[in-house]
Design goal:
Strand content: 15-25%
CATH architecture of the largest domain: 3-Layer(aba) Sandwich
Keywords: Disulfide bond, Hydrolase
Shape: globular
Number of domains: 2
InterPro entries: AB_hydrolase_fold, AChE-related_enzymes, CarbesteraseB, Carboxylesterase_B_AS, Carboxylesterase_B_CS, Cholinesterase
Radius of gyration: 24 Å
Enzyme class: hydrolase
CATH topology of the largest domain: Rossmann fold
Protein name: Carboxylic ester hydrolase
Structural class: alpha/beta
Oligomer: single chain
EC number: 3.1.1.-
Length: about 575
């Protein structure tokens, strides 16, 4: 293979932060010249790696707006010497939950807690130090999760060094605004300027298109990937571009999330905006709530939101987030971009800490419809799951399948039917050193637990042979997809594959046909069904441990999804009505 020297910057100046956001830096280490100056990074060498990784941390990709609640802006600074050897502050985070859940969420997703600032629109680049191929390396751009309420690109488990060192790809991670700072629901704002966090994401992708060649990457080989709200953001990007648009990525990976099929209605947060204004006593000094909240201290806003448990979600603006995203896909209105998506076997356990019964949750999602509640409860009998014999285990499995697994299946099937190359996976592995409480495997393959394996950032202490090998397998699959999205990650695409008779006993069914949490199947031991092998299982299948990929028929885990179909249909209709109301009011 022919290799080239690092490309010299020919890009035009890109939107960047104000000069105060960057210190003048003339130290050693790797450098890259971009449109606004010279970036000075640092290097790292991973075990058994053949070359070092260049890390450029805290590069400005846009400026936080002059006025709070505005779109990301360019700044006029140029010719900078940018110190990119340490992460910049996270955007303002909100953990607006009841106290126990808030503390638990912080333990998993915000430990250690970073510095926070409204000046936060920075990104990080992890690149192999060796010369890149003449056509540039593949690029993976990460969008973090956090319910669109919290998150930051500087978390240690988002470090892209392992990808760069072992898979010869470039990784970019970036901050974007969340909660009220990123999704302000003020009726005084134009509807197309309320999803500021989504606009930040687009600004970061624009930066990658303009500048990644200066780090050895190709702007034509970009794959976006994200987890949870990051995956929802990925799907929002997939479905908000039109078919004829030039899209800033050619592949997409969705981990434990998507936005086309919702398990909860996307409601307006006008009421929360008014509550925040009232708590800030806006009416006493201002005629405009927007002006008042813009003037308020950020720490004060954060405190009020967390004390009153106010949640600010995206607006269905039909620009960055469509109410009819699934229909746009079905009608062929979006770009045909290869996708890969999947979920974890025990997503729901982290969301239902201290809950002992599914009753309240089922009442909420069914509208107190007793027939549906009874039907769903009967399909998830207490004691039938490997995870445990309690109401918490029952609720967690219902939540896992209703919120994540079944919606992901709908998304994958719809994508394949629309002619989009689609691959699906299922993560089912648990390791004590990646549990929230080290040494305890109480949460199993919980929501987000695959991230350290994908990034290769699991703790080195108490690492098992299976964990190390499984991480390599997953990282290789993600990288293979990024290098050739149309070719896939290495197993059959959805809608293709070998069709064969699958015996119930071979599908992970327990004794006497009991439901096994690792497969979710309802088949008895001697029953068979026609299956198509096109879902990759990473980790355990039934009672068999694996450090590689086992390809199964997706019906092994999706057999109960039909129970939720009427609920999803009702939510889709509600979303359409909400979007129509919001857009009419904005006119």
């Amino acid at each position: 293979m022919k290799f080239c020297d690092d490309a010299q910057s020919t890009a035009q100046a890109l939107p960047v932060p104000s000069p105060s956001a960057n210190s003048c830096y003339n130290g050693g280490g790797p450098t890259a010249t971009i449109g606004v100056g010279v970036v000075h990074g640092t290097t790292t060498l991973l075990p058994a790696a053949t070359a070092t990784v260049n890390k450029y941390l805290g590069i400005p990709f846009a400026q936080s707006p002059h006025l709070r609640f505005g779109p990301p802006e360019p700044v006029q600074a140029a010719g900078q010497s940018i110190n990119a050897t340490a992460f910049k502050p996270a955007c303002i985070q909100q953990f607006a939950y009841p106290e126990l859940l808030a503390q638990f969420t912080k333990l998993i997703f915000n430990s250690p807690a970073p510095e926070e600032s409204e000046d936060c629109l920075y990104l990080n680049v992890y690149a192999p130090s060796t010369p890149a191929p003449c056509d540039g390396r593949a690029v993976l751009v990460w969008i973090y999760g956090g319910s669109l309420q919290f998150g930051n690109a500087g978390q240690e488990f988002y470090d892209g060094s392992s990808f760069a060192a072992y898979e010869d790809v470039i990784v970019v991670t970036f901050n974007y605004r969340t909660n009220v700072f990123g999704f302000a629901s003020s009726p005084e704002l134009p509807i197309t300027e309320r999803n500021l966090g989504f606009l930040d994401q687009r600004a970061a992708l624009d930066w990658v298109q303009r500048e990644i060649h200066n780090f050895g990457g190709s702007p034509d080989k970009v794959t976006i990937f994200g987890e949870s709200a990051g995956a929802r953001s990925v799907d929002a990007l997939l479905t908000s571009y039109n078919k004829e648009d030039k899209v800033p990525f050619r592949g997409a990976i969705l981990q434990s999330g998507q936005s086309s099929y919702r398990a909860q209605p996307q409601t307006s947060t006008y009421q929360q905006w008014d509550q925040l204004a009232a708590a800030l006593n806006c009416s006493s000094s201002y005629t405009s709530n927007l002006t008042c909240i813009r003037a308020a201290n950020a720490t004060t806003i954060k405190t009020v939101i967390e004390q009153q448990i106010l949640r600010f979600d995206p607006t269905l603006d039909n620009t960055t987030l469509y109410a009819n995203a699934a229909q746009r896909r079905a009608d062929g209105l979006i770009p045909n971009i290869p996708v890969m998506g999947g979920t974890n076997s025990q997503e729901g356990r982290v969301f239902n800490i201290a809950q002992t019964s599914p009753t309240a949750f089922l009442n909420q999602i069914t509208g107190n419809t007793s027939f549906l509640i009874d039907t769903i409860t009967a399909a998830y009998p207490i004691g039938a799951f490997d995870s445990g014999p309690t109401g918490y285990d029952q609720l967690s499995q219902i939540y896992t399948e209703y919120v994540f697994q079944c919606t992901a299946s709908s998304w994958a099937n719809a994508s394949a039917v629309a002619g989009i190359p689609t691959w699906q996976y299922y993560f089912n592995a648990s390791f004590s050193n990646t549990q929230p409480v080290p040494g305890v495997q109480a949460l199993g393959a919980f929501h987000s637990s695959e991230i350290p394996l994908v990034f290769g950032t699991y703790p080195p202490i108490n690492t098992t042979v299976q964990q190390h090998a499984l991480s390599k397998t997953m990282q290789s699959a993600w990288s293979r997809f990024a290098k050739n999205p149309a070719g896939g990650p290495g197993w059959n695409a959805v809608g293709t594959g070998t069709s064969k008779q699958v015996l119930g006993a071979a599908r992970g069914v327990g004794a006497e046909g009991a439901i096994n949490v690792n497969s979710g199947t309802l088949l008895g031991l001697n029953q068979t069904s026609e299956g198509t092998l096109n879902m990759a299982v990473f980790g355990t299948r039934g009672d068999v441990l694996s450090s590689g990929v086992t390809v199964i028929d997706s019906e092994e885990i999706n057999s109960r999804c039909g129970l939720f179909a009427p609920l999803y249909s009702r939510i889709a209709a509600l979303d359409q009505a909400t979007a129509a109301m919001l857009n009419q009011n904005a006119q």
